Amino acid sequence: MTTAIGVVITEHIVAGRLEDNRLVGKLLRHPEDPNVSDALTAMPAGELVEILATHIGTLAGDDTRPLDAVGVAVPGIVRHGVVEDSPNLHQIKGMRLAEELGHALIARGIAAPVYVVNDADSIAAGVAATREQLDRLTRVWTIGNGIGYGRWPYVEGVWEGGHITVTLDPKERFCGCGGVGHLEGIMGYRAMRMRFLDLEPEEVFAQARQGDTRCREFVDLWHRALAAGTASFIHLAGPGRFYFTGHNVGFLELPLLRSHLETMVKMSPLQSFSLEILPPDDETALLGAGVSALRASTE
Ligand SMILES: [Zn+2]
């Protein structure tokens, strides 16, 4: 039996124990009250690591068998255990998270390899594990404040799919990274608020449904942008399964996305793609973080 701990850091922390690639027991959450938001943004990085180590220690419990791996999913660019960038958790930017957490765990008597993974990649891994398709290419778009792109199996690279260029219009400059023409500059929540100064994104989608022309045109652009990003990845890595999740996945209309995608992908061997919406949850990413860590620890 393999045992691992999976942890997800978003605007909160969730940790759980995996036995043979399945979640067992209760999840631990910080803050415990789900109504408390923004608990992590101002937290010093050292304190964050201590909370992670404490949760992992609790989940490891009194089990005398060593843990096989610890997997931590974080938003941002992650390479070799280092968080190279994390736009929503500035304090961990540049942090050698795998190493520092490893030290905090050793101080608690836990010697397990720590593996840090991008949160969207961990969702892709979690989906692949849940559907018993770990041998297949699985891709995930996460639609939230930013736009994330994740894939399983892990391959070396940056994979900032949310910043793929989907338009040459120089006026498209709402991306949080500052880049012109980016997917997130159209689809991201923050970007939509900057575009529609008079309406919240929820109101834009609601008014589009009621037939408002300006909102309807934007909702169409939003779907075309996602289709363009998806089409680009189909042309690079092939058709296959794409999943859509995240806090704002409720804005997505799959038939509209599909109709735009069909105008963009015309080579017949590439047309066998499938699209599916997944309700956002923490468990999938948590499972994926653990599964990714186990896979990495045996490579
Ligand atoms: Zn960007």
Mind explaining what this structure looks like?
The protein has 299 residues and is of the alpha/beta class. It has helices spanning 45-60, 97-106, 119-130, 183-187, 189-195, 201-209, 213-237, 254-264, 282-297; strands at 3-9, 13-19, 22-30, 69-74, 77-79, 82-85, 114-118, 138-143, 147-152, 241-245, 274-277. A five-stranded mixed β-sheet has the order 3-2-1-4-7, sandwiched between helices. A four-stranded mixed β-sheet has the order 9-8-10-11. Strand 2 and strand 3 form a beta hairpin. The protein starts with a strand and ends with a helix. The site of zinc ion (ZN) has 6 residues, from loops.
The string of secondary-structure elements, in order, is EEEHEEEHEHEEHHHHEHEH
Percent of residues in beta strands? Answer: 15-25%
Low-confidence stretches: none
Q: What's the shape?
A: globular
Rg computed from alpha carbons, rounded to a whole number of angstroms: 20 Å
Helix content: 25-40%
Mean pLDDT: 93
The description of the largest β-sheet is: 5 strands, mixed
Summarize the SSE layout with pairings:
Layout: E1 3-9, E2 13-19, E3 22-30, H1 45-60, E4 69-74, E5 77-79, E6 82-85, H2 97-106, E7 114-118, H3 119-130, E8 138-143, E9 147-152, H4 183-187, H5 189-195, H6 201-209, H7 213-237, E10 241-245, H8 254-264, E11 274-277, H9 282-297
Parallel strand pairs: 1-4, 4-7, 8-10, 10-11
Antiparallel strand pairs: 1-2, 2-3, 5-6, 8-9
Helix pairs in contact: 1-2, 3-9, 6-7, 7-8
Residues 163, 175, 177, 179, 182, 184 line the site of zinc ion.
